[in-house]
Design a protein that fits this description.
Layout lengths: L6 E7 L6 H22 L3 H12 L3 H9 L5 E7 L4 E7 L11
Antiparallel strand pairs: 1-3, 2-3
Length: 102
């Protein structure tokens, strides 16, 4: 749970779920990136874990739903690059209402 008036931001890679970019992203992310990253860095393994990690991470809607359980006053997500990059954000009100108070 966030402290009163606290904020959180989570910037993540995400797999596009549909459209023409989804297939291109998967091809790039699962095959091109590990090979090119491995050549440049000298460690292919350093880039092989990333597609698996992204695939296991909750989807943008699943994570937004989880964050809403924090009783935050604002919670949402913004996506860029056809859904490949997502920023989740939430802000806790400065004071939580007491039981029965609105």
């Amino acid at each position: 749970m966030l402290k009163p008036d606290g904020q959180v931001g989570i910037l993540e890679f995400s797999e596009p779920k549909g459209g023409p970019m989804a297939g291109l992203f998967r091809l790039y992310f699962r095959h091109v990136l590990p090979n090119v990253g491995g050549i440049i860095s000298g460690s292919k393994e350093a880039y092989r874990y990333l597609p698996t990690s992204v695939a296991k991470f909750p989807s943008r809607t699943e994570l937004a739903t989880m964050m809403k359980t924090w009783d935050s006053s604002t919670c949402g997500f913004y996506s860029w690059n056809f859904g490949c990059v997502v920023l989740h954000s939430a802000r806790m009100p400065s004071r939580l209402p007491r039981t029965g108070e609105k």
